[in-house]
């Protein structure tokens, strides 16, 4: 777990969570993937960097942008 309850996850872990919440890949530019939920219209960008933990600011942005409650993200 990172700063003030923000989880430290890899991009692969984030993608698995997004898929469970009906997000689908809608585009990619270089190492950045765009994921969108067709029901809610919410969209997030995930930087894919092999096995490295995503920075805290990036994780906070993904959590806020996804609309997935904090409780549904692993610690």
List keywords for this structure.
alpha+beta, three-stranded antiparallel β-sheet, Metal Transport, Frataxin, Chain A, 75 residues, 2 helices, single chain
Tell me the β content. Answer: 15-25%
**CATH superfamily grouping:** Hypothetical protein
Estimated helix fraction: 25-40%
Give the overall shape: globular
Q: Which second-level CATH architecture applies? A: 2-Layer Sandwich
Order of neighbouring strands in the sheet with most strands? 1-2-3
Mean residue pLDDT? 91
CATH fold descriptor = Metal Transport, Frataxin, Chain A
CATH class: Alpha Beta
Total number of domains: 1
Over the alpha carbons, how many angstroms does the gyration radius reach? 11 Å
End-to-end Cα distance, whole Å, is 5 Å
Tally of DSSP β-strands: 3
Largest sheet: 3 strands, antiparallel
Q: Would you list the SSEs in sequence order as H and E?
A: HEEEH
Task: Give start-end ranges of low-pLDDT stretches.
Answer: none
Quickly give the structural class: alpha+beta
Query: Count the helices. How many?
Result: 2
What does this structure look like?
This protein has 75 residues and is an alpha+beta fold. It has one domain: Metal Transport, Frataxin, Chain A (2-Layer Sandwich). It has 2 helices and 3 strands. It has a 3-stranded antiparallel beta sheet with strand order 1-2-3.
Short description:
About 30% of the residues lie in helices and about 25% in strands. The protein contains 2 helices and 3 strands.
Topology:
Blueprint: H1 11-20, E1 23-29, E2 32-37, E3 43-47, H2 56-66
Antiparallel strand pairs: 1-2, 2-3
């Amino acid at each position: 777990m990172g700063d003030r309850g923000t989880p430290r996850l890899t991009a692969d872990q984030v993608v698995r969570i997004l898929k469970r919440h009906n997000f689908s890949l809608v585009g990619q530019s270089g190492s950045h993937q765009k994921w969108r939920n067709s029901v809610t219209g919410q969209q997030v960008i995930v930087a894919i960097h092999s096995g490295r933990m995503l920075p805290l600011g990036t994780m906070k942005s993904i959590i806020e942008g996804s609309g997935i409650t904090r409780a549904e993200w692993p610690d």
